[in-house]
Amino acid sequence: MARHSAAVGLLFPALAAVSWGTNAVAGRYLVGGGHIDGVTLTLVRFALATPLIGFSAFYIARERLLNTERRLLFWSSVLGLLGITGFNIFFYSALGYMDASITALVTALATPLTYIAAVVLGLEKATLLATAGAFISVGGTYLVLSPQPGSSVSILGFLLAFGAAFSWVIYTLILRVKLAGYEQNVVMFWTSLSGTVFTVPAYIALAPRGGLEVGPLEAALILYVAAVPGALGYTLWNLGVERVGASKSAVFIPLVPLTAAILGWLLLGETLSVKQAVGAALIIAGIVAVVWRR
After folding, report:
1. Residue-wise pLDDT tens digits, 102-112
2. How deeply is 152 buried, as exposed, middle or buried, from its count of CB atoms within 10 A (0-12, 13-18, 19+)?
3. CB distance 114 to 247 below 8 Å
4. What InterPro entries does its record include (predicted)?
5. Is the pTM of this model over 0.85?
6. Which of 23, 99, 104, 147 sits a CA distance of 20 to 30 A from 154?
């Protein structure tokens, strides 16, 4: 029964990562195509996702939502600043300076960084297999999204993408250490609400004042990234961290670029090379190595 519960717990971060892979493809179209800027997309996305998360929290844990502790409110606000405002603005801003593939690759560094931090803090027990698996998965990510000739790279873009990865590492660790045992739907509601509020000043300061090119397709994609990768994806991630820990959840992060690469091949006609296929195999092998139970 315990093994079955652990297996179910592993599904949560895995499904969250896959949903974020679809978000990357939608983001490439929306932001890369000039239909909407990254800060505005972040604000609109979570302004729409927050009521959905709140409805779920009210339905599942009404009493806990209406009687939220101050400690939960404080740490949820920190999570909102890091995982909603910080991560998304860093990530989308990096896309303005580097190719999406390189940005996603740098962001995938959250996998070994989370594992190393969890071991240093005594949250996880270090094993040779798990350590190798974390780095193998990132190596596979490099093969899937390795820079092509002519791709653009900049120091500022790298720093922004690394800022996104670092924000996500701290987000995951705080969630594990400070908010373990709380109802995750309630945590996610206050996190999303706080992140939306923190994004407003960034929107005022950074968002361009030009008109947006949002038609029916773009509007549908924005609703999708709000409901699935936004509301559902973040809630599944929180549940996964609570059930299986920070490092085991973080190892699924490389599924984000893997999913994006596969969807790009299927939907956008992008080429899936032999090197990328080998990278996909390494990503899967790395995930198995980290979550493997002796």
Report:
1. 677 778 778 77
2. exposed
3. yes
4. AA-Vitamin_Transporters, EamA_dom, EmrE-like
5. no
6. 23
